[in-house]
């Protein structure tokens, strides 16, 4: 069993699920560096939400490149880390765009081919923590945090994204241990960090984290 301080932990979940908050708590709890999703310096994001069909492919390639760079940095530096959204989830967003008719199939095939070639050079995380949040709750949190670039996100998009996440989790859990957390019951992040540590030590490949919060 690896030392917990050497773990590579990926935090997965819908937009507004609370990944950054949990990643920070896990980093503090385990003494691991935290690698956040490139949002503030994403030079495509505003254009993507303004004209999604036009910028969908370019945005996905940009994110794949940035995420690959971050993923490899965690591996090369050694000593583990917590990643706020994994590189594997980029394909979830790309497939959602195809499902909704926003990205062309040929662009998706090109994107997927590049991703598969890059994956040959990637080490998998030790564990992925999936924050299971409904599309309705995701929508509420997006509205609450009031990021201008996210103002055009629709419920239809979030429903399609959630369906793709369900398929993704079922697939990735065959090769990477996944801890599935009902994040709608979220109470205290430091307590949740302890629960996730305990669940990882149990060692099975797909399980739901179950706990009774002691703090409200």
CATH fold description? Rossmann fold
CATH class: Alpha Beta
User: Reading side by side through the largest sheet, how are the strands ordered?
Assistant: 2-3-1-4-5-6
Number of strands: 6
Label the overall shape. globular
Report Rg: 17 Å
Number of helices: 8
Mean pLDDT over the residues: 85
| Ends apart, CA distance between termini | 33 Å
The CATH homologous superfamily corresponds to P-loop containing nucleotide triphosphate hydrolases
Strand content: 5-15%
CATH architecture: 3-Layer(aba) Sandwich
Estimate the helix proportion, in percent: 40-55%
Number of domains: 1
Structural features, described:
It is a single chain. This protein has 216 residues and is an alpha/beta fold. The chain has a single domain, classed as P-loop containing nucleotide triphosphate hydrolases (Rossmann fold). The protein has eight helices and six strands. The chain has a six-stranded parallel sheet with strand order 2-3-1-4-5-6, with helices on both faces. Helix 8 links the parallel strand 5 and strand 6. Helix 3 packs antiparallel against helix 4, helix 3 packs parallel to helix 5 and helix 6 crosses helix 7. The longest helix has 26 residues. The two termini are 33 Å apart. 33% of the residues are buried. The C terminus is likely disordered.
């Amino acid at each position: 069993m690896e030392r917990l301080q050497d773990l590579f932990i990926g935090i997965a979940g819908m937009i507004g699920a609370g990944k950054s908050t949990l990643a920070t708590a896990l980093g503090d709890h385990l003494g691991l560096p935290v690698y956040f999703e490139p949002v503030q310096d994403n030079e495509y994001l505003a254009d993507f939400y303004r004209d999604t069909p036009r910028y969908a492919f370019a945005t996905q390639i940009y994110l794949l490149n940035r995420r690959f760079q971050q993923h490899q940095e965690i591996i090369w530096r050694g000593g583990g880390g917590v990643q706020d959204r994994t590189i594997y989830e980029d394909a979830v967003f790309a497939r959602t765009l195809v499902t909704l008719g926003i990205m062309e199939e040929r662009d998706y095939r090109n994107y997927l081919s590049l991703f598969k070639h890059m994956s040959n050079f990637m080490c998998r995380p030790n564990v992925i923590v999936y924050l299971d949040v409904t599309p309705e709750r995701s929508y509420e949190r997006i509205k609450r945090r009031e990021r201008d670039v996210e103002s055009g996100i629709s419920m239809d998009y979030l429903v399609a994204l959630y369906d793709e996440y369900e398929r993704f989790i079922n697939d990735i859990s065959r090769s990477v241990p996944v801890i599935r957390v009902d994040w709608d019951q979220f109470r205290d992040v430091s307590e949740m960090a302890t629960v996730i540590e305990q669940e990882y030590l149990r060692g099975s490949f797909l399980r739901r984290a179950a706990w009774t919060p002691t703090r409200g």
